[in-house]
Amino acid sequence: MMRLTVAENDQLVARLSHEQGRRLADSGVVQARPSPFDTELWELAPQGKVGVARVGDVEVWVTPKLVL
After folding, report:
1. How far apart are CA 31 and CA 25, in angstroms?
2. pLDDT band at 68, cuts 50/70/90?
3. Residue 22 predicted with pLDDT over 70
4. What is the pLDDT of residue 48?
């Protein structure tokens, strides 16, 4: 299981397989697109939701932009 953590107002670059990246892109949890510089790197940005989601074998933690 891969765990990725990103703040809701931030971005993340992660090494993912094509299948993992496509599943994340289709999930609606994050916006995911392959990096133009490396086919194994994916650029991820939250889609306005805070929480945890498991998409296949990837767990995505989107944390609030403000820590309470």
Report:
1. 5
2. low
3. yes
4. 87
Q: State the pTM of this model.
A: 0.86
Q: Who contacts 6 (Cβ-Cβ below 8 Å, separation ≥6)? A: 12, 30, 44, 45, 46, 60, 61, 62, 63
Instruction: Please give the Cα distance from 58 to 24 (Å, whole number).
Output: 8
- Residues in Cβ contact with 36 at an 8 Å cutoff, skipping those fewer than 6 apart: none
Q: Tokens 């697109």 label which residue?
A: 33
DSSP 6-66: EETT--EEEE--HHHHHHHHHHSSEEEEE-SS-TTEEEEEE-S--EEEEETTEEEEEE-SS
For the chain, the structural domain boundaries read: 2-63
The residues pairing with 13 across neighbouring beta strands, listed in sequence order, are 43
Unique residue bearing structure tokens 């994340």: 24
